[in-house]
Amino acid sequence: MASDGRKQPPWIPPPARPDAQLPRLKIYNSLTRSKDDFVPVDPTGKMVTWYACGPTVYEDAHLGHAKNYVSTDIIRRIMKDYFGFRVKFVMNTTDIDDKIILQGRQQYLLARFKQEHAAEDDSVSDSVLAEAKAAFRHYIGKNLPSLPSDTSPETFSEAVDKAYKEKAEPPPLADAATAKQGQAVTVADLLLRAHIGTARSAVEALQAPGKLPEFFAKTDDILLPYLDALHGAEMDSNNHKIYLELTQKFERRFFEDMNALNVLAPDQLTRVTEYVPQIVRFVEKIVANGFGYATPDGSVYFDIDSFEKAGHSYSRLQPWNKNDPALQADGEGSLSKGRSMKRSENHFAMWKGSKPGEPAWPSPWGHGRPGWHIECSAMASEVIGKTIDIHSGGVDLRFPHHDNELAQSEAYWSTPGCQVQWTNYFIHMGQLRIRGLKMSKSLKNYTTIRTVLSQKEWSARSLRICFLLMPWQDGIEVTDELMKAVVGWEGKLNNFFLKSLDLWKHSSPKTTTMQELGIADQQLLSALDKAKADVDTALCDSFNTSAVMRILSDLVTESNSAEALSDQTVILLARWVTRIVTIFGLDPEGDLSNLDRIGWSGLDIPAPAKPYIYPASQLRDKVRTLACSGSVDHTAIAKLADGITIAASTPVVLEVTACSAHVVIEVNLC
C-alpha cells in the first residue's frame, strides 16, 4: 500500500514471552519514533540477534564514526553485561561500492603516473607540469563553474574573488552560537571552500613547482579525478585486487581504531565481496516474487510500485522523504549518475550492470556488481534469518539505505497473505556535528580517530564519557562546555577511585567486614540502594546513560561530603560504581568477574606524590561541598585549609568548579 507521507506505517510488536524472565526494557525504535517494550524473537528471551551497518572502508575513520560505533558498543555492553542477554552481534564492512571504486581506481592511476614520471633528481618535468595544468583546468571546470573558462593559475585568485566573494573565506566566529542566529555555514559553503582550497594548493605548486614530492603533495587532489577521467574506463573489470588492497588496508586500520576506543569486535563480520553469490540469489528471488526487474544494460531494479500494489509499505522509517530526489540519487551512488533504463526515478538498483572500468562479477543478467542497499539485506538474512531483533546504524542511513533494506528483505521473505517484519527494532545513533554540520570526508570538516587520540587532548575514555553524557539517539555538538563537563566527570571519578583504593589497600580484612556502621554509613548505603534502583530505571528507559552518569556523579559527591564514613562503606560503594563504569566500557582492562575490583586502569599515583595529592584532594572535596551548600564563604575555606596538612614547600593552587561556583585557592602549606 502507498504509505501516507506524513506518518509511519503500523509496526507489529513481537509476541509476548510470558515464560521468559525479561527486564522492563523499552527501546527508542526508529520504526515507531517511540519507546517500545523490548521482546526478543528467541522464545526463551535470552538470545538477541543484532545486525549493525559497518563502515565503507576506503579511508581512515573519523570522529563521526567514533560517535556511531562507541554508542553502539555502549548499548551492546548494557544488553550483554547489565541485562544478561546473549547477544549475537553481526556487522558488515562494505568493501565494494562507488566510493571504493573511485578511490581505488584513482589511487592506482596516480601511483602509475608518478612511477612513469619519476626523475632521479626529483625535478618536475615539462610533461608533468603540462598534465598538472590540464588537471587544474579540469578540476575548476567541474567544481568551480562560476570561474571563467580561461582561468589560469596566474589569474585564479582574482577570478575567485570576483566570482565567489564572501563565500570564498569562512566568516569569523562561525560556530554553534552563530548557527543559532541563522548564520550557520551550509554544506554548499563548505564544499565550495574545500574546492577552492584544493585549487589554491595546486596553484602554489604550478607557479613554483620545486621538487616532485612537494609538487605532488599539492597537486594530488586535482590529478586524481583528471587521470580517472582519462583512463578510468580502461581498467580491467576482472582485476579486483586494486580495490581489495585498498579495502583490506582500511578495514585493518578501522578495527585498530575500534580497539583503541575499546569497542568490542563483532561476533561475526561479513564482507560484501565474500557474499556476492548469496546476493545474486537474493536478487533472483525478489525478481521471482514480482518485485524486481532487469534492464537491457544488465542492471536489476527494485519495483516500488509493484511492492506497494501488493499491500506492502515502502519507506517505513522516513515516509516523508520517499520522493526526495537528492536523497534517492545519493543512495544510488556517484557512478550511477546519468541515463538509466529503470521504469521510474524512485526505483533503486539491486544489481548494477558492468560499465567500463568497474569491477564485476558474473550473474544471470550479465557481469555486474551489487547495489549498496542489497548488501545488508542479503548478508543479514543469510547469517541471522528472516527476523532480526535489532538493526542499527547512523541516523543518516534511515533513508534511503535502511528503508530500502527493509523493502528488499520484506519482498524476499514475505509470501502471499503473509508479510514478514524483517526487523523488530531499528536504532539509529545521533551524529557528531561541528558548527551544526555532520562530519564528512567530502566536506573535509573531519578529524580522524587516530589524529585525535595521538594529540592527547581526548582519550578513548574521555570520548566515551562524552557520548555517555548525551542520549545515544541525539546529535552532539562538541563545545567547550561539553569538554569541561567531560573533564569534570572523569576527574571526580578518578579522585574517588584513588581514595577508595587507598582505603582498600590499607584496610585489614577484619575492618572491611566487621567495622560497625554509623549514621553516616547507613545514610550513604541507603543512597547507594536508591542509586541502584535509579540506574536500573534509567537503563530500562532506552539505555538512558546520561541519567546514569548524573546518578553516579551525585553518589560520589554524597560520599565525598559525608563525615566519619567507615572504610567498608566507601569500598562497597566504589566497587558498585566500578561495575557500572566497566559495563559502560570505560575500562579496557575491566573484569566484571572480579567483584573486588575498584577503579579503572591508569590510576596509580607515585608514592612520593601521595603526601601532596591526597590532602589536596581532600581539601578540594570539602570546598566543593561548601560551594554546593550555599554562597562561597572565603573565611570558611580558609578554616578548611587550616585543618589539612600537606608537606609542600611551595603554595598549592586548587581550582574547584561546583554548583555554578568557580573557586581558585592558593594555600600556603608547610
UniProtKB/TrEMBL annotation:
Its EC number is 6.1.1.16. Keywords: Aminoacyl-tRNA synthetase, ATP-binding, Ligase, Metal-binding, Nucleotide-binding, Protein biosynthesis, Zinc. It is an enzyme of class 6 (ligase). GO terms for cellular component: cytoplasm. Residues 318-340 are annotated as: Disordered. Residues 45-486 form the tRNA synthetases class I catalytic domain. Pfam families: tRNA-synt_1e (PF01406). This is cysteine--tRNA ligase. It comes from Diplogelasinospora grovesii. The lineage of its organism: Eukaryota, Fungi, Dikarya, Ascomycota, Pezizomycotina.
